[in-house]
């Protein structure tokens, strides 16, 4: 479980709020990279919150509802495979995180003192920010952001699975599983596949 100690210690410095930012889908072969930014109340916490990767789908869904009901503000950002291929995944991830952060600021927080805690990244935005390695294990607000981003992207994957049948997107969520790679070899890439991630697979298919 990720508690509030880390966030509360930072909050003492001089900030009105702590905002957590995390992403999901960075290592996928298919689909958008998605980021979430959230400000949570820190006078109490939702018990059991931790890195979204450590939670079952059922628990993630329950925690998402709890987070959304308690959040002071939240927002999402996403970048498409086309953008990922054009500027690379690191820059696309940072851009999605920036969009999510700006979405929170636009909810009446531009005049507030906010520190953005970002999971192992930085964003091109002139705001107080701190990159936190393994942030979703250390920071409560980053862990909450990781759950929001994961649930949001998982719902996109369900829609993408209907739009692009045959790849099994609903199951593996676009990651490079054996089933997914075999489907790409058989069907070729869809419009939502990241071409810059597929060089070896496409070389094998064309060979």
Overview of this protein structure:
The longest helix is centred in the C-terminal third of the chain and has 24 residues, at 140-163. Helix 8 (178-187) crosses helix 9. A five-stranded mixed beta sheet has the order 3-2-1-4-5. The protein has one domain (4-203): 2-Layer Sandwich (Nucleotidyltransferase, domain 5), CATH 3.30.420. The chain is 46% helix and 15% strand. Strand 1 (17-24) and strand 2 form a beta hairpin. The protein is α/β, with parallel strands linked by helices and 207 residues long.
Jot down its keywords.
207 residues, alpha/beta, Nucleotidyltransferase, domain 5, 9 helices, RNaseH-like_sf, RNase_HII/HIII, Ribonuclease HII
- The level-1 CATH class: Alpha Beta
Helix coverage percent: 40-55%
CATH fold assignment: Nucleotidyltransferase, domain 5
The largest sheet has its strands arranged as: 3-2-1-4-5
- What is the CATH homologous superfamily assignment? Ribonuclease H-like superfamily/Ribonuclease H
Mind describing the biggest β-sheet? 5 strands, mixed
* Beta strand %: 15-25%
CATH architecture: 2-Layer Sandwich
Q: Output the radius of gyration.
A: 18 Å
Mean pLDDT: 96
- End-to-end distance, in Å? 48 Å
Give the uncertain stretches in residue-range form.
none
Order of helices and strands: HEEHEHHEEHHHHH
Structural class: alpha/beta
Backbone shape: elongated
